[in-house]
Amino acid sequence: MGVFFLNFLRALKGPTKNLLLRTTLFFVYLLFGAAVFQTIESGEERREKHHFELVRQNMAEKYNISEKDMANLFLEISKAVDEGYFDVNYDRWSFAGSLFFTGTVVTTIGYGKMAPATVWGRVFCIFYAIFGIPITGLMLKSIGERITEGIANFFRLVDRRVCNREPQSIHTKTVIAVFAIVISMVLLLAALAMEYEGWTYFEGLYFGFITLSTIGFGDYVPAHPSEYQNHPAFVIIFTAITFVYFTVGLALVSSALLAISRLFEDDPPWGFISLGMNQDDDDEDRITREKLQAHKLHDATKSDVH
């Protein structure tokens, strides 16, 4: 079976082969992730379900609540939790809160703790995202390019002025530097989350990665510290700093991810992505070159004879 598959791959042309291999790799990676998450998380889910079932039974017995009333109560509590009403005590749809929401829309972070509840709000959100996401993507691309260009120029300057040599491995150095900056930002964000959000350091690291990768599960969302909730100026400053931080971070992450994509395309690690991709093309090129050389040699021989 394996030999048949390899022969089948060799019979395909380059672009089709690339598509098949990368699609296969994608689905294998999905299946692998699903198996790992099921193994890790399924036991905890069963324990949580059992725990909440005991809580429901105890409340029903203690307060003599019917099954129907208990189901309605849990439904309302679930809606309140999903929509984030238990997380904050201030007006989330103030201008500052709305500004924070629009940032999560156009950056595609989408924490999920805030969402329009009206029909017109949802309609506007669709059209706002259609135009806002490309605009944001162009802005982040431009910022990321400027940052990486500045880092590359810095390394060129160091090589020429300090090391007295021609610039070497600038692309590799730039990628490493971008990753170092992104990691530093996540570490700093985790420390700030410990101070202002009351999270553990690991929770802050997890939040930083989920945010800057635009996954945005919404299980951890920054909230204004309670002691400052009555100070509008602090809310505005908090929102502005958050936007700047996320904008720079997302720009750097987009640059880093683009560098990784190019690295996989230009020099795939371990050769598993390019398995059988280039061998046939290289053979065809070699045969073509040999034929051309043979024709040239034949023509040259005929000219010498004449």
From TrEMBL:
Residues 88-148, 182-256 form the Potassium channel domain. PANTHER family: POTASSIUM CHANNEL, SUBFAMILY K, TWIK FAMILY OF POTASSIUM CHANNELS PROTEIN 18. The chain crosses the membrane at residues 20-40, 93-113, 119-140, 174-193, 199-221, 233-260. It is found in: Membrane. Keywords: Ion channel, Ion transport, Membrane, Potassium, Potassium channel, Potassium transport, Transmembrane, Transmembrane helix, Transport. Pfam families: Ion_trans_2. The keyword Coiled coil does not apply. GO terms for molecular function: outward rectifier potassium channel activity; potassium ion leak channel activity. Its main location: membrane. SUPFAM superfamilies: Voltage-gated potassium channels. It is a multi-pass membrane protein. Belongs to the two pore domain potassium channel (TC 1.A.1.8) family. It comes from the Eukaryota. This is Potassium channel subfamily K member 9-like.
